[in-house]
Structure formats: C-alpha cells, structure tokens
C-alpha cells in the first residue's frame, strides 16, 4: 500500500497552520513548522536585509527571525510580547517568522485550494500558492520557498 505524502494525512487532506499578520490571514504547510513560541528579543545584525529582524539562540542554534509582514510587502510589525514566532525548517535551514497570532490548524482537501488570483496590485501575489475560503475568511497559502530564498547571514567583520 502506498504511503501518503508527508504533507497529507491518510485521508488525503493537507494540514496547514493558519496565522494572522495584522488584519491579513495566511497559512503554511504544518510539516514545515517545528515550533511556535512567543516573541523574544533578537540580536540585530548589521547589513542584513530589512525584513530580517535579527537572530535568536534556539537551543544552541542561531536562527534568523524574519518580519513576514515586511517580507510580503505589508506594513512591518512592531514586535510586542503578544506577537508569535513560527519556527520553520526549510531543507537544512531553520528560520523564525514573526506573525501577529497563530489561529488554527486546518485539514484541507486539495479540491478546496483555489489558484490565487493574478492581480498585480497585491504585493503578496508572487508568494501565494493558493487561496482557501474558510468560514468567514479567505486564507492565502504561502509558498515559503519563494517567500524566503536561502538566507545568508552577513559575515562578521
């Protein structure tokens, strides 16, 4: 018997973690998520891209923290203790994403995922894999691989 793909359960649904960035709703594949933690202060890095807030020490690993709002072309978040960091693993790289709040874990059938509209005015359009109508909101599935090409931390002088 064939095993389900890593990002799908035995029922064929795809599991996603939904989160808010300001008033905007997004989600990402739950298989990328290592942990969800509260905001913690970062160590800033000189010459880092503007969307990289800095780095944290996560059990001995240096993890870059990305302001996902800034990276998506939205109004940058001003981190507070109410904000959340989603720690994700992308290949061999661990990255933290600053978001406003984590909302839910969703099981979505592939048929529920619609292609994103191709409108040039939405700054996030190139980063969206699909759109889901969930309850009274529209969720955009982020293609994390395009949101975050490999991060190279600036070399120390």
From TrEMBL:
One of its GO terms (biological process) is chemotaxis. GO terms for cellular component: cytosol. SUPFAM superfamilies: CheW-like. Residues 13-153 form the CheW-like domain. It holds the Pfam family CheW. InterPro entries: CheW, CheW-like_dom_sf, CheW-lke_dom. PROSITE patterns: CHEW. PANTHER family: CHEMOTAXIS PROTEIN CHEW, CHEMOTAXIS SENSOR HISTIDINE KINASE-RELATED. This is Chemotaxis protein CheW. It comes from Roseivivax jejudonensis. The lineage of its organism: Bacteria, Pseudomonadati, Pseudomonadota, Alphaproteobacteria, Rhodobacterales.
